[in-house]
User: What shape does this take?
Amino acid sequence: MSRVLRGLYAITDSHLLADGKLLPYTEAALKGGARLLQYRDKSGDTAVRLRQAEALRDLCARHGADLIINDDAELAARLGVGLHLGQDDGSLAAARALLGPQAIIGATCHASLELAEQAIGEGASYVAFGRFFDSQTKPGAPAASLELLSHAQRLQVPVTAIGGITLERAPSLIASGTSLVAVIHALFSAPSAAEVEQRARAFSALFATV
Assistant: This one.
């Protein structure tokens, strides 16, 4: 891992970032201080995914952030970037073997410390818990609690919180020990790239004060 994993973790959404918004909005988030950027696109257009991921990799390099590919170890390996895996998205240990010891690899652990410990044993760089609040992206996901974050402090890797996180809700998560707050709608539902950057700066500033 090239950098300390702490701060705003921006996750793309193909609907929110349609119509040419992907690159200007993600660059705005990076200008605002996002430390990680996850490219999340479930479409089957391999050529488009590769082209977009390459462009995002270049943006992240320019702004000193790290790109994470959602659920596609082969694409992550091809670009030399990080990876995030859900519980049903393949072997974390196999991904670690493919990507090497320095790659950032994250794992979805829902609301389970047991899943987190298993992921760490298989080589996870960080673990993600959620949803903490009602989420538009995964409305049926198991609920996680602030108490879970407190217990997770015994883990030896950074902890990410995800699920319905807003600027008002983030401070309690950071105070409870999360290293990264993963944000989609509260960041990218903005009406302009300038507003995305402003929101990203506000999220990033929370880590300097909490």
